[in-house]
Design goal:
This protein is α+β, with helices and mostly antiparallel strands. It is built from 12 helices and 17 strands. Helix 3 (109-128) packs across helix 4.
């Protein structure tokens, strides 16, 4: 949940599994996002193996939970807007267009009710947080947040109608993927059938703020370790898999399935279903600083998967069909996520509050004020409606790019694993923000 899902961390699940997600340090906290339709790739695929390659054909039983069949819908067209300046890096610089009144959007009563409950949770953080998008100021949220405290959830539509206006950022063309909280088999202690280590953060993993060394590097960080008098990259996935961290007492639990754990790392947090029937929740602690490489994109480029198989479920089936081959493919993604046990409500999003299934989305804080309501109108019906931006993700970058959170369980996994929707998006901003940004005619 950026993934901060740092606590939940996806921002490259199938999108990242599909496209690469490279950065100095993923600001998602580890989470990457789902979706079978990739944005332009940012990293080169590994060399194609020698010899003929036949596309992998999974049997129906191999992938367990299958991706949900999309429910088609007709999205609202984006509003006419001026071209976005090439230099724009925030919502304010991209330009905004006034949208229709909330009561014209067709949001259902249940969607508004869930969104109001999520918005109420976000208010304390929203009023303190500096808005990187340039659209709001802390005081802008005071009126709506005070009103939300005592507002009846059963009249939530009236709340959003009264306290918010809508705007479109830039061209308004939206792309939406999905993420969820995975649940996999795990054990607190190593035992037969549970031999995949889940590590906490090592003491020798060091974060370096490069902005302390050069103004040109402000906001950039790297992670690594000290060896002698040199600062070098931290161990990559393959090195960790070969035992680089064994014997240091870093294990907080053990997973039963390496491929399932790989996907949990992509998500950034999840639940371990313990042998006694109990549940242990683990959340993102940190990441090894290595760039994320999307293995789905590699498999597509090599012809080992066909486009219709590039969902989370299809990739998982490929990894399980041949464990040796699957392990080699997973090791081509050098990124490794470290975890901690978490208690209480969760998973937590970037605002430090629990994210809510079917109500929370991850967004780029440079283009969406975290805590703001978001209205989606897409070519898939499932994510259409009202959401609250409560999270971020390493692959969730740019205007109108969102990652929808679907909760936990098989249904959430089936929807999120194949989620990919395109259409239009509107932000809901406090009336004070609207008055400042769009002078009355």
């Amino acid at each position: 949940m950026a993934r901060r899902v740092r606590a939940f961390g996806l921002a490259c699940l199938v999108i990242p599994l599909l496209a690469g997600c490279a950065s100095v340090i993923p600001d998602s906290g580890g989470r990457v996002s789902n979706g079978p339709l990739p944005p332009p790739a940012t990293s080169k695929p590994a060399p194609t193996p020698a010899g003929p390659v036949r596309p992998y054909q999974p049997r129906p039983s191999e992938s367990g939970v299958v991706a949900a069949k999309p429910i088609p819908a007709t999205p609202n067209p984006a509003l006419p807007a001026a071209p976005v300046p090439a230099s724009a890096t925030t919502a304010a610089a991209s330009g905004i267009v006034a949208g229709p009144a909330f009561d014209k959007l067709g949001v259902t009563a249940n969607q508004a009710k869930a969104a109001l409950a999520a918005f109420r949770l976000s208010c304390p953080s929203v009023q303190r947080r500096a808005d990187a998008s340039g659209l709001t100021q802390g005081a802008d949220w005071t009126e709506s947040c005070n009103a939300a405290k005592g507002w009846s959830d059963n009249d939530a539509s009236a709340f959003f109608t009264r306290y918010f206006g809508t705007v479109q950022v830039g061209a308004g063309n939206a792309f939406v993927t999905g993420y969820y909280e995975p649940e996999i088999a795990g054990s607190r202690a190593k035992r037969p059938g549970y031999d995949v280590p889940i590590y906490r953060r090592p003491s020798d993993l060091v974060d370096v703020d490069l902005g302390q060394f050069s103004a040109d590097l402000k906001g950039k960080k790297i992670r690594g370790r000290v060896e002698g008098s040199n600062f070098i990259p931290y161990y990559d996935r393959q090195t960790i898999e070969r035992g680089a961290l064994e014997g240091r007492g870093l294990e907080i639990a053990w997973a039963a399935d390496a491929a399932e754990f790989f996907f949990l790392q992509v998500q950034g947090s999840g639940r371990l279903r313990l042998p006694d029937g109990g549940v242990m929740r683990i959340g993102y602690d940190t990441q090894n600083g290595r760039d994320y490489v999307g293995i789905g994109k590699l498999l597509l480029d090599r012809g080992e998967l066909q486009s219709g198989q590039a969902s989370m479920q299809g990739i998982l089936a490929y990894l399980r069909a041949d464990p040796v081959r699957g392990a080699a493919v997973m090791n081509e993604n050098p990124s490794w996520v470290f975890f901690r046990e978490i208690t209480g409500p969760g998973p937590l999003g970037a605002l430090g509050v629990p994210v809510t299934g079917r109500a929370s989305v991850a967004a780029d804080p440079k283009y969406v004020p975290l805590g703001a309501p978001v209205f989606l109108s897409l070519d898939r019906a499932e994510p259409n409606g009202l959401w609250i931006a409560q999270d971020t993700g390493g692959a969730i970058k740019g205007a109108n790019r969102f990652d929808s959170f679907w909760g936990a369980g098989d249904d959430a996994r089936a929807i999120a694993g194949g989620m990919s929707g395109r259409g239009s998006a509107l932000l809901l901003l406090p009336r004070a923000s609207i008055a400042r940004l769009i002078p009355p005619r």
